[in-house]
Write a structure and sequence with these properties.
The chain is an alpha/beta fold and 222 residues long. The chain has one domain: 3-Layer(aba) Sandwich (Rossmann fold), CATH 3.40.50.300. Helix content is 49%, strand content 18%. It is built from 9 helices and 8 strands. The longest helix is centred in the last third of the chain and has 17 residues. It starts with 5 loop residues before the first strand and ends with a helix. It binds 2'-deoxycytidine-5'-monophosphate. The site of 2'-deoxycytidine-5'-monophosphate (DC) has 14 residues, from helix 2, helix 4 and helix 8.
Length: 222
């Protein structure tokens, strides 16, 4: 593999994209960028500021006041997302955000804003970025493209475990309904819907351990 490469990982909600992206970035000494965190941070801003996102003018104005950055936290060894200088990494993982983020991410102006910033972040190459349209729209010429999937039940269980740790009041049904809704909106929206890029390699990790999925991806990269 070229030293300066872009690796894209797209796929359905909660199929382990970020886990694999972080593993790969660590192994290769690349920077991991979570593009979904940007849509989540924008959703948080819209909710907090009561933005009517059905009004394109209001959306455009609101976007002018949004600054999104990623900072690496040495302590947690994770990259964390900042919204206008506030660390919102924890807040944006809440189900309240998950319930609205697909609607916000379907807005043309929001996508133009996020995609532009993602492309700037990719200028230096040596990144692993995960999302829904990274291999199709953001970096159509990326050196390595992976499209991830996993069995629906497995995805629901994995995401439930993750959210339950933060909020024991959450139910499996709620998580299942949210994933189904997001998959539907993400893959049926007008602007860059979730699609496997023609040259992306399919990775189904339903029956793979984390070590096995990393091994698969590293072979592909090398
Ligand atoms: O990966 P995630 O679950 O954090 O993403 C949150 C939402 O953001 C997801 O439902 C769809 C949207 N998204 C998108 O439309 N395009 C991306 N590149 C990444 C995420």
């Amino acid at each position: 593999m070229k030293k300066n490469a872009i690796i894209t990982i797209d796929g359905w909600s909660a199929c382990g994209k970020s886990t694999l992206a972080k593993q790969l970035a660590k192994e290769l000494g690349f920077v991991y960028i979570d593009s979904g965190a940007m849509y989540r941070a924008i959703t948080l801003y819209f909710l907090r500021n009561h933005i009517d996102w059905t009004d394109p003018k209001e959306v455009e104005e609101a976007l002018k006041n949004i600054k999104i950055e990623f900072h690496f936290n040495e302590k947690s060894q994770q990259s964390e997302v900042f919204l206008n200088d506030e660390n919102v990494e924890w807040l944006i993982r809440d189900l309240v955000i998950a319930e609205k983020v697909s609607d916000v991410a379907a807005i043309r102006e929001v996508r133009a804003f996020a995609v532009h910033q993602q492309q700037l972040m990719g200028k230096k190459k040596r990144i692993v970025m995960d999302g829904r349209d990274i291999g199709t729209t953001v970096f159509p010429h990326a050196e390595v493209k992976i499209f991830m999937t996993a069995d629906n039940g497995t995805r629901v269980e994995r995401r439930f475990k993750e959210l339950f740790e933060k909020n024991p009041n959450i139910s499996l049904e709620e998580v299942k309904a949210n994933l189904e809704m997001r998959d539907y909106i993400d893959s049926n929206r007008e602007v860059s819907p979730l699609r496997k890029a023609e040259d992306a390699i399919l990775l189904d990790n339903t029956n793979l351990t984390m070590e096995e999925q990393l091994e698969f991806a590293l072979k592909l990269v090398k």
